[in-house]
Each structure stands twice: as structure tokens, then as C-alpha cells.
Amino acid sequence: MPEDAPRGVALSRRSFLASAGAVSIAVSFVGSRVGRASAGATTDADGAFRPNAWVTIDGGGRVTIMSAPAEMGQGIMTGLPACLAEELDADWSRVRVVQSPARPEIFGNPALRMEMSTYGDYSTQGYYERVRLVGAQARKVLLLNAARVLRVPVAELSTRSGMIVHARSGRRMSYGRIARIARVPEPLPEVTTADLKPRSEWRLIGRALPRVDIPGKVDGSAVYGIDVQRPGMLYGAILYPPVVHERPLTIDDADAKAVPGLVRIVPCAGFVGVVAETVEAAQRGRSALQVSWTATAEARRYDTGVVPEDYRRIAADLGAAGVEMSRRGDAAAAIARSPRVLSREFLCDHVAHTAMEPMNATALVDGDRVEVWLSTQSPSAAMEQAAKAAGTTPDRVTIHSMLIGGGFGRLSDDADAPYEAVLLAKNVPGRPVKLIRSREDDFLNDKFRPLAAQRIDVGLDADGNVQGWRHRIVSASHFARFNPKLYEQLHGQDFVAGLGGDVLYGWPDHLAQFVRAERGWDVGPWRGVSFGYANFAIESVIDEIADLQKSDPVELRLRLLAQQPRAAQVLRTAGAMAGWERARPPGRALGCAFASMSKSYAAAVLEVSLERVSGEIRVHEAWIAVDAGVIVNPNSVTAQLEGATIMGLGPALYEQIDVRNGELAQSNFGAYRPPRMSQAPEAVHVSLIRSDEPPGGVGEIGIALVAPAIGNAVARLTGKWPRSLPMSPERIRTLLQ
């Protein structure tokens, strides 16, 4: 995945792409598909003026702004439209935000090469400059129209909160009045980053705006994928094999066909589906199926009781070549000549996504036209898979993106839901089919966070200073399964499964490697991706080095980050917030951790206690400081870090998926243990550090702080560092023994 988003350049007449319907004109960028411009257009019959595909202004002055990324609780549907409205100089109280159509050529993310996907913290980073330029150009179009009507030079006009002002004459025109008579000028005005407002003039960016998606979620009017209703809708249910990737051998459907309301039975390569008039009939039909399955899938040999030791052996075997994820100098030589070598092994178990909204999709197939309604982080992927299932092309597929009831990376890898729904809908052409997975089926078909083994070897001098650092991560690959072409382009670098490194710590000789080891089980992105467990290993070793040096853990990190002022500042701030040097109550200790991810810097201090008899760890309070560049909406950033702290308790302390010969030991919340409300910290304090740097990501970095801060606090209480995730009571009891 690209680290740096392509930068926006001058917008001119060639920056507009003509299209039909409600999306009349679209802003494009260098490298995107550009067609003929449409100049001279006037308002529509309804009095609405559309200066570009992102903005509509009606005759009453109400502004509608398109939001391209998926809204899954992170507040992006407020933040990016506010950036556009800032440059448009719209009255925010009169702005309405709607989800954009799934049109990658128009609304794609520049950071993802115009793909429409929401993952990897790329939304604000990718769209920030683009939507501001869109707003600035729409504002110029309005100014040109006002200058024409008022018969004054455009340079004499200014805007303020939905009004155009001619200061010399005292005349004012509302955006609504202009919209009623406006037309797109020829040529269109050019806009560059020089036209964007300076920070001193911002009224919306950086302001704690109420989120636009919250009222509907409170009053029940918000529509998620699971809520979709269509005229004449049928319901689907699927019988999956007990082990993934098996196929049906024989199907006895006599009893299923006898179920009242059953419409169709649909045998497919990896499952058997049913379509019925009601949810109940679909469920009964599925339960009545008698299916025998193949027993040849490699997943049948997958066992989480065996794989960890296998992976540990590979991590320790330097002859098992890995793909370089990052490298400086010659780590092997530096380690070899060091008088002391510190070697540590770490393990993390599978973690499930368990979003409150289970996987679902509603599909309609009519000839070669396909419509799909679903909650998705990736309309682009959904479009491709829906076309594949229907036997048509992506341009014949319409994706309706709904609100998301929890994504966490699973819905960026969710093409199986639209694929399955379209396969069912093909069998009842002209009627929509709604498919909702049960919680058990959601577990069974999840793409868990990878089970991974890690080994870190550190060469130390006589004073305990790092001379060389080698970090190896062993796991299955996400990219190799989900996007083989990208995997090949990256030469095997899988940032979802194997992103390790030394963060920003300043030793010269460093090597991070990812060693792919497939064992027949699919893995996928989980919030924080591999850095969620890689940083656990990195920060644990840093604390252990501090202990060897008899150094304070915060002070050691500050020395290592002496050339990184933004990084050092978040550490100082978090330590000061927590009162790092202040004594804690008996039985409690502080642990710290630092993370750098998605062009952001963050540090956390957690106060932890340990019940030695049971092995239960409790997090009482958390203090987090972050420098994420320009903060578009402080409320959203604070909420992201608060939420990540609580969510991060799951893989750190409780959440664990066990697979025995291809079958899950956990298939619902009775056996799987995400954090409960009673286990949440008493308080999570967040400090946002002002910065003029471009926006960084904040959706994932908080996860990377939680486990290492907890582990380091446990070590301060016990003198022993946990090296497996989750740090379950059983593992802590074993550690203490």
C-alpha cells in the first residue's frame, strides 16, 4: 500500500468529467480518466445548481456535499465534508451530507490510486487536499456568477458563511440566490493549493463539530446494510461446510423443498444456498438440507495447538529466508560482533472481528444489470466480485453503500458477502435477495487477524546500547490470497501480516523481515493490522533493554528519539499527563508504549494491577498523547483513541480463536470474550498536540499502544515480561510460576 498519496495539482477545465444524472460534473486529477467538460450548464428544473459532482446548492441555499469514504463510526462523514465546506465557505448549519455513489473514477481515493475503499488510515490523508480543492473551485464558480450578476470585478467580491459580499457597495447575495441563476463558466477557473485558506482563516477545520451521522443512529432512522428493505424482496440462507474450503459432494434436498415458502435451492462450489419468501422459511430450508462434504481442504490440518511451535521454529531459523520489510546497514554483522545478544520470541493468537452488524448483502440481478446494497469498506472490491458472480462486467454493477455497524478491516475484505448474495439472486432474476449471516456463520467465515510468531535479536554493547536489531515475523499472508497481483508487485511485502520495524528508534543497523508460512487458513486485516502485534514485541524489548541499562523506560525512549521531536513530544506529554514519576497505590504500576503509524505519532501510559492468584489483569486508567498533523475534527480523533484503547484490551487480554483440525472452538460470544463494560478503564485521557503537518491517521495507532503498555506494566509489577497475546489469566499464572 502506498505510503505517500499523490498530491493534487492545478484544477482546470480539463479537471471536470462529464457524466449523466445527479452526478453531472466530477473533479478529477492527473492520472485519472478525463472526458469532455460540460460548461455553460444552468440550474436544474428543481432549482439546484451543481458546480461539480461533489456539491449541490439548491435555491434555498442548502448545500449538499458528497462523502466518498465509508462511515463506520470514525466520523469521516463529518470530517471530510467539513474540509470541503471550509473552502466553499458554506454555512455549516445549512449543509447536508450524503454518501456518494460508488463511482471510483469520480470519487476514488488518490492515496489508493482512485480505488473506493476505506482502510489503512488513508481516508483523511488521501482526500484532505482533494476535497478542499473541490470546495475552492466550487466557490470560484459561485464568485464568477455573482460578478456577472452584480456587474463588478470578481476580485472585489468575498464570501462568508454562504453569502457573497461586495464590500464597496454593501450588496450581498446568498448562495441560494446565485444557485437559481448560476451556470458553469467557460473556461472553468483554475485552482491550486495556493488558493486554499490559510489556517488563520479556518472556521470549520479543527473545530469540534457534532457528527452528522449521530442523530440518525440515536433516533433509529439510520440505515445499515442489515436494515435494507426492497419491494418484492426474498431472503437467503446458506449452509456452509464445517471446515472452510470444502465442497458439497451429495445434496439431499427433499425435506428442504417441502418447507412452505421455499423458492429455490442453489448448489454452489463452496456452499448450498436457499432462497425463500421469509427469513423463517429460509432458515428452516437450510436446516432441512442433508449435505455430505469433501474432506480434502488443507484447512482440515490447521491446528492452533501445533502451528505456533512451527512458526517459532521458522522465526528462529535464519536459513528460512524472509522478505525485507525495512533495512538499514548490516544488522547481522552488527549483532555478530556485539558482546551481548538479547533474543526474545513472541506469539499472538488469532483474533476475530465480531462486528455487531454481521456480514450481509442484498442483491438484485436483472439481465446483465446488478444492484447490491451492503455495508462495505470497499465498494470497488464489492463491484468486482458482484460482476464475477453475475457473469457480467463491473460497469454493469451498481453498489449502494450503507452505514456500517462495525468494520475493523473485515469489510475491506468482504467481497464474499456480495458474491454470495448475487449468486443467490441470479436464480430469481428480477427479485432482490437479502442474505444475513448468523453469528456462528460470521465466525466460521471470518478472516481472522493472523496467528503470528516473532523473533527479535538485539546486539548490545557493554553498556546495553543497541548495536543491531533484527525482527522476523512469521505468519500466513493476507495479500497473497486477497490481491495476488499486488502481492507480486510488492515482491512479497505484506504490510497487513508482516509489518515490523524499529519504528523511529535511532540505531544504524536494522532489519525487519516477513516470512510467509501458509498452513491452509485464511487471514485478513484487523484494526491496527500487523503493527498491533509487532509493536507489542518492539516496545516490550525496548522496556527490557531499559531494565538492563537500569534506565527509566520513558527516558530511554526519549534518548532514542532525540532526532524525532514530534515523537519525543508525545512521550513527554503522555508521561506528564499520567504523572509518570509519581508513586502509584500498592499493587499498581504504570506501563508506557510509543507508536508511529500512518504519519502520526502517539504514546500511551496505562495504570495496571494484577491479581496474582487468578492471573487477571485490570487496566484502571489510560493517558494518550497524539500528534496526527492537522486535526480535522478533535471530537472524532479523541473518540478514535478512546475506542481503540477499549477495543485493544480484547487482543491484549481476552480474545483468542482456537482451531482444532480445521474446526473452530469459538463460534459465538459464549466462548469468545471481547472486553465487557465492567473491564473498561475508569478513564481514558487524550491530549491532541497541535501540528501544522498534513493529517495523519488515527484509526489504528491506538491499538498498537495498548498491549505493550499493559505488558510493560505487568513487568514492573512482577519482573517478568509477557510474550504471548492475549495475556490471559492462564498464561499470566504460568508466567508467574
Based on the model shown, name its key terms.
737 residues; alpha+beta; Aldehyde Oxidoreductase, domain 4; 3 domains; 7-stranded mixed β-sheet; 6-stranded mixed β-sheet
Name given to the CATH homologous superfamily of the largest domain: Aldehyde oxidase/xanthine dehydrogenase, molybdopterin binding domain
Fraction in beta strands:
15-25%
Could you tell me the mean pLDDT?
93
Structural class: alpha+beta
Helix content: 25-40%
Number of helical segments with 4 or more residues: 21
Query: How many structural units, i.e. domains?
Result: 3
**Major beta sheet, specifics?**
7 strands, mixed
Using the 3D structure, state the CATH architecture of the largest domain: 2-Layer Sandwich
Written account of the structure:
The chain has three domains: 13-205 and 212-218, Aldehyde Oxidoreductase, domain 4, CATH 3.30.365.10; 226-296 and 359-436, Aldehyde oxidase/xanthine dehydrogenase, molybdopterin binding domain (Aldehyde Oxidoreductase, domain 4, 2-Layer Sandwich); 307-350 and 448-736, 2-Layer Sandwich (Aldehyde Oxidoreductase, domain 4), CATH 3.30.365.10. The chain contains 21 helices and 30 strands. Helix 10 (379-390) runs parallel beside helix 11 (416-425), helix 16 packs parallel to helix 20 and helix 19 (634-654) crosses helix 20 (703-718). The strands form eight sheets. Strands 12-13-10-20-17-18-19 form a seven-stranded mixed β-sheet, sandwiched between helices. A six-stranded mixed β-sheet has the order 15-23-22-21-16-30, with helices on both faces. Strands 3-4-5-6 form a four-stranded mixed β-sheet, covered by helices on one side.
